Amino acid sequence: MNRQERTDVEVVQAVLAGELEQFAELVERYEKLVFSFLLTRLNDLQEVEDIVQETFVKAFRHLASFDCERRFAAWLLTIARNLLIDSRRKAGRSIASTNLVNEVMLTDSVREAASQPAEVVVRRERFRNIVAMIQELPEELRTPFLMRVINELPYQEIAEVLEVPLQTVKNRIFKAREILREKRESL
Amino acid sequence: MNRCPENDKILLFCEHELSDVERSQFELHLKTCAECRRELEQTVADDALLRAGIDEAFARHRVSNRIMAQIRNEKTATPVADSHKGWRYFWLTAFALLTIITVVSLYTPTPAKYHGRVGAVMLQALNEKSMLQSEKLAVDQVCDLATVEPAKLDGCFLFTVTSGQTSVFKMSGQAIARINQGLPEFTDAKATFELVSGAIITILVNGSPLKLERKTIIPAPFNTSDLAPDRPDLPSAHLPSVASTSCASDAIIDCMSETPCIIDNSAANASAATPAVEAVPGSATWVDPTQPPGKNPFADEPLKLDGN
Ligand SMILES: [Zn+2]
Fold this sequence. Notes:
The structure holds two protein chains of two kinds.
Chain A: H1 8-16, H2 23-39, H3 45-61, H4 72-91, H5 98-113, H6 117-136, H7 139-149, H8 155-162, H9 166-185
Helix pairs in contact in A: 2-3, 2-4, 3-4, 5-6, 7-9, 8-9
Chain B: H1 9-14, H2 20-32, H3 34-60, H4 64-73, H5 84-103, E1 121-125, E2 131-132, E3 135-136, E4 142-144, H6 145-148, E5 151-163, E6 165-180, E7 183-197, E8 201-205, E9 208-212, H7 251-255
Parallel strand pairs in B: 7-8
Antiparallel strand pairs in B: 1-4, 1-5, 2-3, 2-5, 5-6, 6-7, 8-9
Bound molecules: zinc ion.
Zinc ion binds near residues 7 and 36 of chain B.
């Protein structure tokens, strides 16, 4: 069977039946989603990495209790969110994340510096602003917006993953865009 | 600041939420309105920049190899499997550990929690005489209760209940077993039940919840910190459960709460013998537990843009 045609639940079943390596398929499908979900919520990328890893390992350990009526991605985000809350509680951390922007763009700028330094500076500044604006969005707007822009998911899928009605997803993404537009104009 | 009256269409345009007619009209407008054009370009450019920046970060910070390496290391703790071979090893390991633990009378009151709803319920005959649906069940054969329920049982069986952690209990006697609201349920039961290992667990016996008290813990490879509290508040509704090997619970959500739960040592004793009513003739047909599930709840649906 073509791997790409397999649904998440089929892959889950295969893993549960002992085909351990099939779990890589689920990681492949959703690592970026979990990564971007955590990225705007944490201070440093090391921590993002750790929680991404922990999320998938936890999902693996509890795979037998996965409710196949749910979206696998929804379940993963629930795990990630819980781990995030946990880690924040332990560390007493806030969400502020300017370091993250620096870190994301630092390597980027080094990589591009040789070719177009001036443009890179502008791009970095712009990216910094965008991320800062997104971080100020309420979580309920930020998550669907990121899923839409970063993960390029259709509304229907976002609705299923976030387990909210379709129209709510649309409204939230529009609201997020409106707020971002206001902020951009006031820059 | 006065905006172009068409400005509100920009976001709808970006999100492909305009009708064909509206879209054409707005495209015409864009040709004559520099303000809308600029804002549209800006929105598209910002999206692209955000996507590129995060993609860039993601490329450098992927952990898929680490995840798979850790999972391979935890191979022995594979959550549940229909693989007979795997289960044989599991039982060998479990019983070896159990024997050692019993011999040294080791009792570790680690806080253990059990959510109530379970993932998989597997059953296995403990001796050659044990019957499932009036047929002998091979000792080394592991069945998923969900695929055989209602399972008419007569003999001695081990049940393995997986919900994050694994609990194992023994049933000796006769009963009809099924999964009711995520709990193992025994009706027409003339049998005893005994928790062999794992966390405290609630089962339903002849209509009443029965809490099986823990006697012994298998310390590894199970993760006791991942269990949620025992919830004896059982709904009385008698609903058939979903016949799937892994359907079940949201236990994972509660699993990650940090609230420790002390084991209820006053729990009812681990056996129940109730006079049985005549057993219901086994009406269920045998289902191969290894067969793939029919339903696919994750099939991608076409994007529905049902407007406002
Ligand atoms: Zn205009």
